[in-house]
C-alpha cells in the first residue's frame, strides 16, 4: 500500500493529467455517439416522410403471390386493404386476378356485381368503373363468377388497364405461374409472397421468385401464414434457406379469422381484439414504411397494468 502512495506522490501530476484526458475522451465519445444517434433518427424520420409523400404522389402496385392455392392470399389481401386504407390512410383497391376461381368478391359477400375485371379486360368498361366499395371501406374490383364471362378475356391487358387507376393497387394473384399468376406479377411493381410453414407450400416460391426477378420486380418478402408453432413446421430460417427470400411476418393460426370470413368481414373490423391483428398491423406498417400499432381496448390496458404490478 505504501509503495502505491509513494508512486502517486511522485507521479501525481502525470496521473491527474491522464485522468483529465480520459475524461475528455469519454465526453467526446459520448458526444459523438449522441450525434450519430441524432443523425440516424433524423435520417429515419426523413425516410418516413419521403415514403408518406411517395404514397400520395405515386400509387404502388403490390401483387400477393403464392406457389400453391389455399394459402390465404385472398384473406390477407382483404385485411391489408382494410388496414392500409383505414389506419394508414393509404387509399387502395384490391383486384381479384384469379379469374378462373375468383374468391375476393365471395369473401366479402359480393356475388352479383354489374362490372367486373372481366368486363374491364374485354374493353367493355373502364377500370375505375369497376371499383366497388364494401360497407367496411374496402375497395375491390372482383372477377365474375359466370363461366361465360371468361371468354375473350386477355389477362395480359391487365398492366395497361391498371395504369389508368390513380390509386394504390393490391393484386390478389392466382396461385402458381399459370397465365393469371404471370399476368398479376407482370402488372405489379412489388411482390409480397405468402406461404404456410410446410415444404409443399414453400418449394414453389423459389421458382416464383426467379420469375419476379427476371421481370425486374421488387420483392418485399415472405408472409408465413397460419403459424401454429408446432415441431413439424418449417422454421423461418429454413423457409429463407429454401426460397432465398426474407421472412418479414408470421401470422399465427387464429380461429377468429375463419369466423370473420364467415361474416364476410375483415378481421380488424370483426374483432379488433383477435390475436393475429398485431401481426397484421406489423405487416401493414412494414409495407407502409411507418409504424402504427393496434389500439388496445380499455380492458386490455387494464389487464396489462395488472400484470405489470404482479
Would you give an account of this structure?
This protein is α/β, with parallel strands linked by helices and 310 residues long. It has a single domain (60-309), classed as P-loop containing nucleotide triphosphate hydrolases (Rossmann fold, 3-Layer(aba) Sandwich). Helix content is 49%, strand content 14%. It contains 13 helices and 8 strands. The protein has helices at residues 2-10, 12-57, 73-86, 104-107, 117-121, 158-162, 179-187, 199-214, 236-243, 255-262, 267-270, 277-288, 298-309; strands at residues 61-65, 92-96, 132-133, 139-141, 168-172, 190-195, 218-227, 247-252. It has an 8-stranded mixed sheet, sandwiched between helices. α3 (73-86) packs across α12. The longest helix is centred in the first third of the chain and has 46 residues, at 12-57. It is globular and about 60 Å long. It starts with a helix and ends with a helix.
Q: Brief description of this entry?
A:
This protein is α/β, with parallel strands linked by helices and 310 residues long. It has helices spanning 2-10, 12-57, 73-86, 104-107, 117-121, 158-162, 179-187, 199-214, 236-243, 255-262, 267-270, 277-288, 298-309; strands spanning 61-65, 92-96, 132-133, 139-141, 168-172, 190-195, 218-227, 247-252.
Amino acid at each position: 500500500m505504501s509503495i502505491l502512495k509513494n508512486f502517486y506522490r511522485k507521479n501525481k501530476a502525470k496521473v491527474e493529467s491522464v485522468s483529465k484526458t480520459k475524461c475528455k475522451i469519454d465526453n467526446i465519445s459520448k458526444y459523438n455517439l449522441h450525434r450519430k444517434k441524432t443523425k440516424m433518427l433524423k435520417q429515419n424520420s426523413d425516410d418516413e416522410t419521403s415514403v408518406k409523400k411517395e404514397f400520395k404522389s405515386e400509387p404502388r402496385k403490390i401483387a400477393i403471390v403464392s406457389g400453391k392455392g389455399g394459402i390465404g392470399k385472398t384473406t390477407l389481401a382483404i385485411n391489408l386493404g382494410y388496414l392500409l386504407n383505414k389506419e394508414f390512410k393509404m387509399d387502395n383497391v384490391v383486384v381479384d386476378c384469379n379469374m378462373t376461381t375468383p374468391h375476393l368478391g365471395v369473401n366479402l359477400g359480393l356475388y352479383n356485381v354489374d362490372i367486373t375485371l372481366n368486363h374491364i379486360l374485354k374493353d367493355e368498361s373502364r377500370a375505375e368503373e369497376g371499383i366497388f366499395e364494401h360497407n367496411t371501406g374496402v375497395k375491390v374490383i372482383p372477377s365474375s363468377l359466370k363461366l361465360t364471362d371468361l371468354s375473350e378475356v386477355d389477362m395480359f391487358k391487365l398492366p395497361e388497364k391498371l395504369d389508368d387507376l390513380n390509386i394504390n393497387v393490391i393484386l390478389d394473384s392466382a396461385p402458381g405461374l399459370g397465365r393469371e399468376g404471370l399476368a398479376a406479377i407482370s402488372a405489379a411493381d412489388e411482390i409480397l409472397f405468402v406461404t404456410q410453414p410446410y415444404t409443399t407450400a414453400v418449394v414453389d416460391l423459389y421458382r416464383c421468385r426467379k420469375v419476379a426477378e427476371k421481370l425486374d420486380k421488387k420483392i418485399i418478402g415472405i408472409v408465413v401464414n397460419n403459424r401454429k408453432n408446432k415441431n413439424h413446421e418449417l422454421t423461418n430460417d429454413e423457409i429463407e434457406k429454401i426460397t432465398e427470400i426474407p421472412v418479414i411476418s408470421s401470422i399465427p393460426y387464429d380461429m377468429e379469422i375463419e369466423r370473420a370470413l364467415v361474416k364476410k368481414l375483415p378481421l380488424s373490423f370483426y374483432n379488433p381484439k383477435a390475436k393475429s391483428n398485431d401481426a397484421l398491423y406489423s405487416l401493414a406498417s412494414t409495407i407502409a414504411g411507418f409504424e402504427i400499432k393496434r389500439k388496445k381496448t380499455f380492458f386490455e390496458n387494464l389487464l396489462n397494468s395488472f400484470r405489470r404490478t404482479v
